Amino acid sequence: MTVIRQDDLIQSVADALQYISYYHPKDFIDAMNAAYEREENPAAKDAIAQILINSRMCALGHRPICQDTGIVTVFVHVGMNVRFEADMSLDDMVNEGVRRAYLLPDNVLRASVLADPDGKRANTKDNTPAIIHHKLVPGDSVEIHVAAKGGGSEAKSKFAMLNPSDSVVDWVLEQIPKMGAGWCPPGMLGIGIGGTAEKAMQLAKESLLEPIDIQELQARGASNRAEELRLELFEKVNATGVGAQGLGGLTTVLDIKVMDYPTHAANKPVAIIPNCAATRHVHFTLDGSGAAELPAPKLEDWPEITREAGDSVKRVNLDTVTPEEVQSWQPGDTLLLNGKLLTGRDAAHKRMTEM
Q1: Residues 205, 16: Cα–Cα separation, whole Å
Q2: Which alpha helices (DSSP H) does 103-149 contain, by range?
Q3: 138 and 287 co-located in one domain
Q4: What's the CATH number where 225 sits?
Q5: pLDDT for 179-218, tens place per residue?
């Protein structure tokens, strides 16, 4: 019987969250670079270049890929031959790992989790609690998938209880314009089909943990209905022209993931959850030998890209800018800002509206 020590699990979760805060998965970098190479739309190409340059800088400096460092989702598969040497519950151990990660002095991560969501919406200050899913499986190890999900992409999640004869493809394509660019494409779409309402949503979220492999699927062809949907939706979603950061172009999604589950004869539950360009997840296994080891990627994994701003660059002095000048800006323009800039988010917007 394998013995998993409490602090090994806690430290592994903490290390994983720091790791994914500044390292994109290699499959994502490769797919994004391929999208950059084939992109023809100047604004979209520039947006992808910024994503890749930012990613490389974050890997070098160990700083967050995105200012929204996400709400933590953890999938834990516990082998039935495992015993925990712990005085905390499994959820408490995971949450302690989250707490350590987000409060680490060397790279403090933004805490975005609020308690009393329809009331005071008070920040928990350490990004706990995480969203935790458990599964007991055969074996003598503990497998853990850790992800950090940004609020912008999560806000664009969709669910519908379709009629059994309804087309999943038609419904998904109907949702894409409604999602706009607020989910920060290019990324991935996770689609869950079947089960019940909550099962479909969980399937969609879990599918996003899979590596980007749509090109391999295109090469070998589909072997089941889920893979047929992936291929059809990948082509049709990219044909919508939403593109990188909503600026048009060839790549809206880097991959489509589909997971399904048996469902009631009267139902066809379908869920979409998008992953943004700050795709952050990692998988590790605890076998009783200590905390998980997460090897640092090689710098050569990132392409060296130099941004070419083009002819659409406009220099803006924020201290003297006029409403007329603002009206002259067009989508796709690159603005180089100089001067004093005040920023605010939801609470500030609400207060300004009320005033």
Answers
A1: 18
A2: none
A3: yes
A4: 3.30.1330
A5: 999 999 999 999 999 999 999 999 999 999 999 999 999 9
The answer to whether residues 146 and 15 belong to one domain is yes
Average pLDDT, the chain: 96
End-to-end, the C-alpha distance of the chain in Å comes to 63
145 lies in the same domain as 158: no
CA angle 193, 155, 182 (to 5 degrees): 110
> Do residues 73 and 163 both lie within one domain?
no
Question: How many other CB atoms are there within 10 angstroms of residue 143's CB atom?
Answer: 17
pLDDT digits (tens, 9 = 90+) for 319-351: 999 999 999 998 778 899 999 999 888 889 999
Q: Which domain holds residue 209?
A: 152-277
Q: β-strands 114-115, 122-123: how paired? A: antiparallel
The closest alpha carbon to 298, from 26, 15, 64, belongs to 26
> Within the chain, what is the greatest distance between any pair of CA atoms?
72
272 and 330 within one domain: no
Show the tokens assigned to 268: 């066809």
Q: Is 128 helix (H, G, I), strand (E, B) or coil?
A: coil
Tally of domains in the chain? 3
Are 22 and 110 members of one domain?
yes
- The phi and psi torsions of 266 (rounded to 5 degrees) equal -90, -5
Residue 178 backbone phi and psi in degrees, to 5? -70, -30
For residue 158, give Cα distances in angstroms to 113, 136, 272. Answer: 21, 29, 5
